[in-house]
Amino acid sequence: MAKVAKTTFRCSECGWTTLKWTGRCGGCQAWDTVEEVSATPAGAVASARVNSPARSIVEVDVESAHAVPSGLDELDRVLGGGLVPGGVMLLAGEPGVGKSTLLLEVAALCADSSPVLYITGEESTGQVRLRADRLGALAPDLYLAAENSVAALVSHVEAIAPKLLIVDSVQTMIAPDVNGVPGGVTQVREVAGALIQLAKTRGIATVLVGHVTKDGSIAGPRMLEHLVDVVLQFDGDRHSRLRMLRAVKNRYGPTDEIGCFDLTESGLIGLPDPSGLFLTRRNEPVPGTCVTVAVEGRRPLIAEVQALVAPTAAPQPRRTTSGLDGARVAMVLAVLERRAHVRIGAADVYASTVGGVRLNEPSVDLAAALALASSHSDLALPRGMIAIGEVGLAGDVRAVSGVQRRLTEAQRLGFTHAIVPSNSEEPVSGIEAVGVDDLGQALQLAMPTRRS
């Protein structure tokens, strides 16, 4: 017997499905958003005309799938070589972080060799032109269009035949034949599907700008991230010039690389060596500071951890962090109090990083502990010293990955001494690395005159 098709209902906002109609969505709790989905008999799939016949994998041409450099080295580093023809990239980030600025610079660089189409759904073409004047991103083959309809976008593509298509943003585009509001789940799904099909059939490298929610995740259905080839996250502190580009998903390259940019009035400038932004230049060492080497992706970054321990009369001492994981700093404070006998519990504690960099990996624990103990004892750490290691609850200093690479970067920048876990990799010439087993040994090496 033929299977009978079941009628289903779907929420137009979040995609929640149910077998019977309800006035309120059970997923997002929105009212009057549940609509009937047209059903077809189960298993009744008819054959259709194919786009191209199947070929042996050894006969498939790979030249057209090679990445083309965008002209922006930091972006190419993250993508694994450049933009891939027919590849679809989703760029997400908070408002004002610089997404449109980044893409406008990329569009101008790519327009030097091939036509580029920039579709803006949030601004007028005049506003984009003003930004391009300020950035110096003007090129004859860079075409602008202010559109919100996918059908109109396809017409522009047919007229210009671009090699790079930028859509800012996917949440503002509308598929005319689909119900739902712009930015809703149904519209975003259909718009993304149409743009991906357009990119694949015409071999156009496509970049979609995506909005983010309050918690930092990409707005819209999760399916959007699965459909595209590359998902990039562009973030940075609003009060800092540093911007970082990370690959969350990449079908064409690595996902452990980051790109660093300096946001200036004239646009974004790539930083092939950003370590200088995260250090404070001073003539004499200051208590409460310690330098470490973090690894973002495969790139080692020299960073400075600062701490201030101040007496307080308040019954509840303050614990404030900036750029560091608050939970790990609280753990380090407890280990210092219990294992190293640093009486710090009744004081206000402030810990931060320099330059707005965020250090969340465990290898920063030892530097944070030394900075806190240095501020509490009012003793400066030796000049030219760095600290690398994870601190355990028993007070032990655990090994971390990539110690040799971190020490090489520190030696390149002129550091001469390092405190590392005792079971680390082979030493690096030019820098004296001393291994320690626990936090007490590290404190004794860094501050021999410290009193418990």
TrEMBL record:
Pfam families: AAA_25 (PF13481), ChlI (PF13541), Zn_ribbon_LapB (PF18073)
SMART domains linked to this entry: AAA
Motif (RadA KNRFG motif): 249-253
InterPro entries (UniProt xref): AAA+_ATPase (IPR003593), DNA_repair_RadA (IPR004504), P-loop_NTPase (IPR027417), RecA_ATP-bd (IPR020588), Ribosomal_Su5_D2-typ_SF (IPR020568), Ribsml_uS5_D2-typ_fold_subgr (IPR014721), Rubredoxin_2 (IPR041166)
Domain (RecA family profile): residue spans on this chain: 64-212
Region of interest called Lon-protease-like, as start-end residue ranges on this chain: 348-452
Binding locations of ATP: 93-100
Top-level division of the source organism's lineage: Bacteria
Keyword vocabulary terms for this entry: ATP-binding, DNA damage, DNA repair, DNA-binding, Hydrolase, Metal-binding, Nucleotide-binding, Stress response, Zinc, Zinc-finger
Family note: Belongs to the RecA family. RadA subfamily.
Function: Plays a role in repairing double-strand DNA breaks, probably involving stabilizing or processing branched DNA or blocked replication forks.
Domain notes: The middle region has homology to RecA with ATPase motifs including the RadA KNRFG motif, while the C-terminus is homologous to Lon protease.
Protein name listed in UniProt: DNA repair protein RadA
Organism: Salinactinospora qingdaonensis
UniProt lineage: Bacteria, Bacillati, Actinomycetota, Actinomycetes, Streptosporangiales
